[in-house]
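Methods — Computational structure assignment.
A single polypeptide chain was analysed. Its primary sequence is given first, followed by the predicted tertiary structure written as structure tokens.
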Amino acid sequence: MVSPGAGYYRLSLGDSMVGYALLQVDTLARTDTSPPLVLLQHRLEIASGTAPAIRRYEVVTSAWLTTDLRLWRAETFRGDPRGVAQWSLRVEGDTLRTLITAQGDTFRTALRLDTIPVPVEAIPLWVATYGRPRPGRAVSLPAIDLATLARRQVTWTATAESTFSVPDSVMKLAPRSYRVVTTDTVRAWRLSGTDRSVQVHEWVDERGFPLRWWTGGGLTLTRDAFEPTLEAFRRLADTLTGHSRLLPPPDVDAAVLKARLPHEHTLRLAGAEYPPLEAAGPTQRFDGDTVTTFEPNSWRGQQAFRPLEPLPMQNTRFVPDLMPEPLLSPDDTALTNQAFAIRGSSLNAREAAIDVQAWVHANIALRDPAASVGARPAGAVLASRTGSPEEIAVLTVALARRIGLPARLAGGLLLTGRGVRVHSWAELFVGDWLPVDPTQSSFTASPSHIRLVTGGTGGWTDLFPLAGALVGTGADPVELP
């Protein structure tokens, strides 16, 4: 049985608080229009910069779930200094209908489902309720990320079991000073998994509430009493006196995106934690927390390419990378027609990848990244022939998947003559994952692209919760030799 409750969390970068999170669970009785439901609400707020230039980033999701914790309906609000994006989802039979609102425009998509997914935000609750966690046990579920609309198969493995004392009530002694009055002793399991190529760990209690969540990028969520958590965030985000260790990401303009740095790079990403196979590729290698990037036509890049099956690829390993998603406009026939027109009669994956990349580069103009929330679906980007870096990457992935070419989003750092920026691009499978960035060139992405996540964009609200200090520019995480 799911138990109602709430949890408050400090979001810390190293030893410094940079935001907070709230998780609420409630149960709803059957009505004339709905079955018995579980309501799961999640809020993440981040503050960056120093007053009076404090910037706030916010992602709020509300999910109405069936009693087996699968999606029935959901709403998401995402806000940052560039603007606001919202979307709502509803499962109707075997169809997922999505309504997206971004910068005053509204877009609709419909997606046929072979199975009803569990929201990523509800997986700890599902594991505690149905997964019977114990050390060594693994759980794999079809999931949808309500914050990004990405679909994927999520696997968590229980790696340890312990008990924790968590604050239950506190007493205020003085301004900014609290004393814990009572604590709860709870049983919990440590779950470990890979989320968009990043290693993630969390301790989850018997009710499905995380006690602590952390990544190799230095970001930690720790459960605490709500009074000190909210008071500390209000001080942090105060528009007159607030100060956050986290600095806002530098804006990337068109001139920066056109500037290629065609050289090899070796960098140390302090705190990076990536499974070797997830971080590797024909242009990037990890050794511990040191990443090396190089041109795909170098000898190291060429040795990664292998013979391929013809299009459309059928290998089960590519199921997640061929899957339709709401942002990929799965029901847009104009996008489907354009994809097959680009491919022509060729069934060669390498030729198709080059053609898709070249067509997007030649036909889709770059919108000002600082003035776009990057949430329009691929069909809208194709129709307008313009897009932000995130939107152009989404369109590239959509065109490739339509013709059976495995494709995924990538987000991370872009090294430029003006410093390190966060950025989005795409990766297409042509024997290995080849990075392509139509905002820069008609060929492959340059070695100045440092991939930190896959299956997600470089939009800051997407990238920061996983990469932490690696994109928190105030933490000075990138060390050039």
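Note: Residues 111 and 402 are 14 Å apart (CA to CA).
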